Amino acid sequence: MPPVITAFEKSPDRGRGLARDMRVRWALEEVGRPYDVRLVSFTKMKQSEHRARQPFGQIPTYEEDGLTLFESGSIVLHIAESHAGLLPEDAQARARAVTWMFAALNTVEPPIVEWETATYFERERPWYRERLPILEDRIRNRLDVLSARLGDVEWFDGAFSAGDLLMVTVLRRLGSSGILEAHPNLSAYIARGEARPAYQRAFAAQLAVFLAASEGG
Ligand code: GTB
Q1: How confident is the model at residue 216 (pLDDT cuts 50, 70, 90)?
Q2: Residues with CB under 6 A from ligand 1
Q3: Half-sphere exposure in the Cβ direction for 105 (13 Å, CA)
Q4: Residue with the nearest Cα to atom 27 of ligand 1?
Q5: Ligand 1 centroid from CA 58, angstroms
């Protein structure tokens, strides 16, 4: 039986591949593993059936052979550990790739999420205008370091790995913010990730869900 993941029935990102099921789809495509998708509405997500899979009432989740996982990073790690292609064979190189996974999720993504949350939900707050540049500076600090570290190599540590997969999905969240403009090598890095055939298949699959939901009204 193929694994089953969960995704938004109608994603608020309007098919831009910014929701976190995208990273799971991409990982599955990279390792050549077919999968099924269970679509969930915002209402269903908060009900006990889904909370049994994801205690916080969110997507994505992953079910396979009686194993249920939540947290996109943990799911991608599980996929990478159980299939060839996303983590190096060499133990030290593998540990470094896992380190980049944590860097993406634990060091780079939090300030981006904080900034996103402010732009979506805090615009009307009296302190918004003062806070926004502070949040942007925190992101810039991270990007400065990432950009210097990447330099002109293709991926962060040798061959493309689950670390790059997560880092690309995290950096994509900055989209058209303009924040990435100072670092053309990071923009090129994202473009390299997006050009991968596995990424393209994952992107098309999540977009098809959004378009079908939109046609349905
Ligand atoms: N740490 C968890 C993980 O990595 O799996 C976080 C999961 C998470 O935040 N899931 C979000 C969710 O289910 C979807 S991805 N939200 C519903 C809720 O909490 O009620 C975050 C997301 C949502 C929307 C956009 N967007 O519209 O651009 C981008 C990212």
Answers
A1: low
A2: 12-13, 18-20, 45, 57-60, 71-73
A3: 18
A4: 13
A5: 6
| pTM for this model (two decimals) | 0.97
**Average pLDDT of span 141-147:** 98
Amino acid symbol at 117: T
Q: What is the pLDDT of residue 215?
A: 86
Q: In 128-150, which positions are buried (b, 16+ CB within 10 angstroms) versus exposed (e)?
A: eeeeeeebbeebeebbeebbeeb
- Reading the block at residue 41, the tokens are 């509405």
Residue 152: pLDDT over 70: yes
Q: Which atom of ligand 1 is nearest to the CA of 70?
A: 5
Distance 91 CA to ligand 1 centre (A): 32
Smallest Cα–Cα separation from 24: which of 43, 38, 10?
38
Residue with tokens 């403009």: 181
- Considering the chain, what is the average pLDDT of its residues? 97
Instruction: Provide the token pair at 62.
Output: 């992953």
Using alpha carbons only, what angle is made at residue 104 by residues 72 and 120, rounded to the nearest 5 degrees? Answer: 75
Residue 114 CA to residue 173 CA, distance in Å, equals: 12
